[in-house]
Design goal:
The chain has 104 residues and is mainly α. The protein folds into 2 domains: 1-59, no CATH class; 60-104, no CATH class. Helix content is 35%, strand content 0%. The protein has helices at residues 14-28, 37-40, 65-81. The radius of gyration is 22 Å and the shape is extended. It starts with 13 loop residues before the first helix and ends in a 23-residue tail after the last helix.
């Protein structure tokens, strides 16, 4: 199965279906930010509400260096070849140890 618990070609069990249903239900309740809607959208957590129970705060952003190098590569490609060539073009970011080079 999808957790490596079943051999390929075996049928889903009722337990598998229940797990998938629970995951679907959980993900359907998430806001785009990844927090549960009932928590993230609750007036109890609104800092403008002077009687709020809790509130959200954020620190500095995290940077994904894979996404950064992908965006830079895509931008350079678009500048060199134009936006029309972006359709169907895909990039892969690989983690390369210091001193090594990509085999092309």
């Amino acid at each position: 199965m999808w957790w490596g618990e079943r051999d390929p070609g075996t049928r889903m069990t009722e337990h598998d279906r229940l797990l998938l249903q629970a995951l679907t239900s959980y993900e359907a309740d998430l806001c785009a930010c990844g927090h549960p809607r009932d928590e993230a959208w609750s007036p109890d957590n609104d800092p403008a509400n002077h009687e709020h129970v809790a509130h959200y705060e954020t620190g500095p952003p995290y940077r994904c260096f894979a996404c950064t190098v992908l965006a830079k590569s895509q931008s350079n490609y678009a500048k060199a070849y134009g936006d029309d060539h972006m359709r169907g073009a895909y990039w892969v970011a690989e983690l390369i140890p210091r001193g090594k080079t990509i085999q092309t």
